[in-house]
Amino acid sequence: MKNVVVFCGASLGKGQVYYDHAYTLGRILANNGIAVIFGGGKVGLMGAVAEGALHHDGRVVGVIPKFLRTKEIAHEDVSQLIEVENMHERKMRMHELSDAIIAMPGGWGTMEELFEMMTWAQLGLHKKPIGILNVNGYYNSFIAMMDNMVTEGFLKQELRDMLLVSDKVEDLIAKMQNYTPPEVTKYAHKDEV
Asked: What are the phi and psi torsion angles at 81 (to 5°)?
């Protein structure tokens, strides 16, 4: 892994633990020579990840739509700030620049980005490792929902297993570096459910 896109909130959430994990993620990626690709904002967890990497001489590339440049307070101190026209272009550009994906806590935008990357992987459009940094149990309900999707026959176990989860930065990065994408078909056959 050389370039990791980090999807996370433009808010800090409640509790110092979210900021601390975001900053630590940026620091550890930088210390391992891994560039951070992120949404380009200076605020919230986005800003914390960027700061963690920048304070440890990491490469940080922000991708931000024009209309969010002032709303999310664009991080002008990053290694490179790429301005795009809209949210779709932002997501596609971040995907193109990365070879791995990490989702931290966030709101609807973070969920939408994560779901699209998982869907693209399911369809075979990429084979990048996708990880969730499950800070403070934030994604526990989501993980339980995915397990229920498998139980109820709407998701293959192999596809569920594509999503790597840990509450520790180093552990998640190790899982991602050792990831081998599965060879699966998208749809379950009648005899498999």
From this structure: -120, 115
